[in-house]
Amino acid sequence: MSATRGTGGGWPGTPPTPGTSSFGPPLLPPSDAAGPTEAFPRHLFTIDCRPEAMRAAARGYRAVAAEAERWDARIEGAGTASWAGAEGDAYRRARTAYRPMLAAARESFAGLDREVDRCATAVEYAIRRMDVVRSAAETTWARLQEARAEARARPAFPSLVPGLAPMSSEAFDRRVQSTRRTMDLLVEEAAGVRRAVAEAAAQTVADIARLAPPGPVPLPGRDPFGPSVVSRETYEASGTATYQVLVGDRTLRVEQTLLSDGRWRTTVTTVGTLGVEVAPRLAKFEVGGKDIAGGMPDASIGATTSGAVDLVWYSSSRGEADVKAARALALLGTAAITNIPLPPGLLRVEAVGMSAEVEATGSVGYDPSSANPIHTGEEAGGVGASAAAGARVRHEQARDGSREDTLALFARGQAEHPWFDEEGPTQKTYGGSGEVTATMRTGPEGQSILLLSSSRQKAGEDNRYQKRWARVLTPEEARRFRNGVDEIARTKGIGRKGSAAQRTVALIAETRNLTADSPQVRDGTVRMTEATYETETVAEPTISGELGRVGLGAEAKVEREKLVEERTVG
């Protein structure tokens, strides 16, 4: 409107007078209104947008999304199981690395289609609304121009001019001012319509920026993993009670960890476990009418759920760490015996963690060495297999404001059978254990980093092998990860397709499939390391007994592990 209005806001170019409208001074005296008739300000009532062109662009975005989906389906459907050798492995790694890029392109362009189409709909509505306002403004403008022409033709004393109605100057001025106010209101309404279009366009731009796939975020200059574990010692004592199929367990664990920065991390954990275990008989044999249980196949299946609380301290020496652990055990033991809660702040911990875990177990076996009156001769070892799988969720809050949210998926399996050679019978053992742990570490400043580790250890071997990945998460990825972890803790499962839990597991799987050849590792947005730890179980004495119909057991265990080698990948 500045192109048509005067510098003082009047119309057309005359400084405003108190009590006047924005279209100029009063028409009285008539001599002040002399001047040419003004053209209708059409630009104030025009929206220079073409919704059909916007929809044409949206159709182009839709076509790109469909093409990305088609290529993703073709890559997924490519049968590569028979592609052996290094070339086949390299192709499968590249496919794993690039498929998320196609998925991101599909989601982004489909979102662009939706947002641009929604903006085109808003513009169409605004154009229809502006057409109504412009029609009313054109009528009002014509009336205003007629009044201006009449004012120029009126002399100072209209009652003395033949043919003119004897209207007073005051009445004529009120009629013109009313018309001017109507025009002002229509101009304001048109400006409101144009503002609505501008706001819709700005919102569309913001939505498009949000839909764009995030670019690679570089890792911070410092080590994103934090200090490495140099050695770890774990001391654990547990007591178990069983009644029919119910199993209860209480465990106290102390972990002393030497970190690569020279500090010691002391963790004291209390764990409570409750579960069920069923041991069905797989076979029944009778000799002389007597049931023979020994030496027969047996099996067991079970499921447990547990909760744990971790208290964490840091020390500058092993002696200081041992003192803190002993003090914590004394205070916790006193609180348990007296049933008096500890006052807040008495332990002065650096961090507190809480975790929940679910686990399913199963085993089947045959032990011929047990009592069996129909078997004679030298007994060979047993034959059996066992397996377990579960998930663990953990949250840790540190005193400095940082936070860790962890999801761990673990499995272990073992099988054994006797083996005979020239040196005599031996027992062969197969299997091992594996665990994938994903921790989102959020610093006091709010930046979140995903720390993923995958470890494996074969049965009967002393070495544990570990791979680790680190990548910066966008705020949206961090929110989805935390929601997924919370959903798994709440539902004790992965959930339905498309749920927050499944999206979290997909993010973990996508990161774990990255290799040294992946683009994210090569450009430094993801960092990888590999490490080997030597493990040792120092002692594992077990005591068991019965108290009435309740079975009791106690176990103490000491485990140690030491870093052998660590290297950066890529």
- What is the CA-atom radius of gyration, in angstroms? 40 Å
The biggest beta sheet is recorded as: 12 strands, antiparallel, barrel
The averaged pLDDT comes out at 77
Residue stretches low in confidence (pLDDT < 50, at least 5 long) are: 1-36, 282-295, 370-379
Task: Give the strand content.
Answer: 35-45%
The tally of domains stands at: 2
CA distance, first residue to last residue = 61 Å
Q: Reading side by side through the largest sheet, how are the strands ordered?
A: 1-2-3-6-7-8-9-10-11-12-13-15
Helix-residue proportion = 25-40%
Structural class assignment: alpha+beta
Report the strand count.
Answer: 15
Biased composition (Gly residues): 1-12
Region (Disordered): 1-35
In short:
Residues 1-12 have a biased composition (Gly residues). Residues 1-35 are annotated as: Disordered. By secondary structure, this protein is α+β, with helices and mostly antiparallel strands.
